[in-house]
Structures are given as structure tokens and as C-alpha cells.
Amino acid sequence: RLRWELRESAGSIGDNSFTGSVTFVEASTKRIWDDLAVHAVFRSLDLGRLVGEPEWGNGRSKGDGDSVIPALPITIGGTQGLTVRLNLQADEFRYGFPLGGLKILALISHERIEVENFAIHVAGGSMSGSGTAREVGAGARIDVQSALQGIDLGTALAMAGLSTSMIDGKLAGGIDLIA
Predict the structure, then answer these.
(1) Angstrom distance (rounded) from CA 103 to CA 132
(2) Beta-strand (E) ranges in 123-169?
(3) pLDDT tens across 33-67, in order?
(4) Beta-strand (E) ranges in the chain?
């Protein structure tokens, strides 16, 4: 078993500067490595520069009215035996529109994506939680539990490009999604 570590490293991915560490663990002769652990801290992270700008419902651009939530292109099962552990932090996060700080701790394997913990600041409040996505036949099963606290609805609607006259106030509570 070989272990390769890059500690106290700095770099840039898709014009997103970061500091952190990367660990590769080679556990067999069949694969280059079996485990990859990434800990990265970004001052500003624009996810669109890494995975492409989001599609807003049916492949349309934001504002076409189909969806206010951007689709994130994620494939379960694409790691082919590699387990990836991510610990990401960003003071500023953007994907389709600017959000606040982000913290995420996740495990990605050939059979599932497991977000052990996430927290994001949005519209003057926060959203935190955990979740999993795993392959089921030709589709996926998604299970997410999240908590919302102090999200300003007017600000959230404006961020999504919607009319702010529809609703006002603060949002707090929980959202559980099983699909």
C-alpha cells in the first residue's frame, strides 16, 4: 500500500484559487489508487467554472421560467472503484447565482454519493443537512434531510430572478426529500 500526500498546497482549479491537501492511497496493483482525499479551502468558488454553467430546467438559461433550482450534472458510479472523500470550504460560493459561504463533507464511491454534512449561507440565512444518492436500476434514489434558518424570502426570490412581490418574510424549518 502506497500513500502519497500533498500537504499545505495551493493552486487553482477553473480560476478558483485554493489551499489545502490531497492524499492518494494506492491499495492494489489493479488500479492507480483506491482512495483520494481532498481538503480544499477557497476564498471564492464558482462551481460553474468547474462543471459548466447550470441548466435551468429543460436545458434553458436562467429566467426562462422552468425552474429556479439549477441542475447539477452528477453521475453516480463514475468513479470505477475509486473512493473520493471531499472536505470543501468556501467563503463565497456561486453556482448560477451568488450564495454565501459553503462547507461540505462528502464521500463519493462507485455506488453512492454521501454528503455527511453541508452548510451554505443563502439570502441572509442558512441551509444545512446531509443526504445520499445511490444507483437503483437505471435511476437513482435520493434521500436528503436539511434545515433552513432565517432565509429572507424576498432576497431568495430576487436571487432566483423572480418577482419579490409574491411573498415576504423569513423562512425556517426542515425539508426532507426522498425521491
Answers:
(1) 16
(2) 125-136, 139-152
(3) 578 888 999 999 988 888 777 665 444 455 544 44
(4) 2-13, 16-26, 35-46, 83-94, 98-99, 102-108, 112-122, 125-136, 139-152, 170-178
Nearest CA to 41 among 110, 93, 99, 116? Answer: 93
Q: Please give the model's pTM, rounded to 2 decimal places.
A: 0.72
Residue whose C-alpha is closest to residue 169's, from 147, 151, 144: 151
| Separation of CA 115 from chain center | 9
Q: Are 112 and 133 in contact (CB under 8 A)?
A: yes
CA distance 87 to 116: 10
CA 71 distance to own-chain centroid: 11
**What is the chain's Cα-based Rg?**
18
Q: Summarize pLDDT for 80-132 with one digit per residue, the tens.
A: 667 888 899 999 998 877 788 999 999 888 778 889 999 999 889 999 999 99
Residue 10, SS3? strand
Q: Residues 6 or more apart from 14 whose CB is under 8 A from it?
A: 46, 49, 50
Give the angle 60-50-132 at the CA atoms, nearest 5°: 80
